[in-house]
Structure formats: C-alpha cells, structure tokens
Amino acid sequence: MKWIVMTLAGLLACSAALADDWRREGSDAEKLEQLIRAMPNTAALMLQVGDRYNNLYWAARQGQWEYAGYQLAEMQGVLRRNMVTRPGRAEDLQAFMDDGFEGMEAAIEARNDELFLRAFEHMRGQCMACHAASGYEFIRLPAQPPRPDNPALYE
C-alpha cells in the first residue's frame, strides 16, 4: 500500500511540473529567457573544440587526411556556433578564425605532414593567445595532444 501512495505522489508531482512547463505555458519573453539560459557556454563548447583538436592532430599524424579535414571543419563549426551563443566573445573568436587556421587547409589538402605540423603549431599558438586575451592564459594546449583511447579510429 505504501508503494502505491508513493507512486501516486510521484505521478502527481510530475503532472504538476508539466503544468508549469515554461515551454508550453510561458510567455514569449519567458521562453526566450529560458532558451538563452540553456545555450551552452564557451567552456562547454571548448570541450568540443578540444576533442576536435586532439582528433585533428592524430588523424593527420596517422595519414587519415579526410578525417583530419572533417575534424577541422567541425572545429570551425563549433567556434562559429560559439559566436552565436556568446556574442560577447564573437570578436575574439572571429580574430582566431581569421588567423588561427592559416595553412591548415592547404596542409590537409596536400597531405603533407611537415606543412601540417607547422600549421598545427601556428594554430596552437593562436589558441593560447586567444586564451590569454580572454583572461584564461592558464589554459595551455600540448604541442602533442594525448593519444586517443581508440587509435583504431585512425587506422
């Protein structure tokens, strides 16, 4: 009997929560405010950029140039998304986009390891310059990212 009462109480609580669902019942202003609050912050998006950074490096180092190009495009997409979700960072991010990837597309297209390493080091330096300009100079990127847990992705 006790579990029936608890189950009913839980169902009532859930239905009450649904009745107060801002997505359905909120004003347009409330909906907009909640959606803005739900957008990922820069730190969340930078975790995605970091994963792409690592994958870009290892894909190229293992000769998986198509996958490296994909990682580069995805990294750029995340940065463009960050410009939308955090417009206060858009200027710094655009400056990085304008210079940070210099030589990277050409290196990937040429499938040239030496050019890639040069472009990667340039990108890494620009990443850290952007971090410093944003007050996050303590975020440093390794010259050689950690090897992925699943190197078979690149083989």
Number of helices: 8
Q: What is the strand tally?
A: 0
Strand-residue proportion: under 5%
Overall 3D shape: extended
* CATH fold descriptor of the largest domain: Four Helix Bundle (Hemerythrin (Met), subunit A)
Helix content: over 70%
* Category by helix and strand content: mainly alpha
At CATH level 2, the architecture of the largest domain is Up-down Bundle
Average residue pLDDT: 87
Report the biggest beta sheet as strand number plus sense, adding barrel if it closes: none
Which CATH top level class of the largest domain fits?
Answer: Mainly Alpha
As a whole number of angstroms, the C-alpha radius of gyration is 22 Å
Distance between the termini: 59 Å
- Low-confidence runs (pLDDT<50, min 5 residues)? none
Total number of domains: 2
Give a verbal description of the structure.
Helix 4 packs antiparallel against helix 5 (65-85), helix 5 runs antiparallel to helix 7 and helix 7 packs antiparallel against helix 8. The chain folds into 2 domains: 2-38; 42-154, Four Helix Bundle (Hemerythrin (Met), subunit A). The mean pLDDT is 87. It has helices at residues 2-19, 22-25, 28-38, 42-61, 65-85, 90-99, 104-110, 113-133. It contains 8 helices and no strands. The termini are far apart.
Q: What's this, in brief?
A:
The protein is mostly helical and 155 residues long. Helix content is 72%, strand content 0%.
Features:
2 domains; 155 residues; 0% strand; Four Helix Bundle (Hemerythrin (Met), subunit A); single chain; mainly alpha; 72% helix; 8 helices
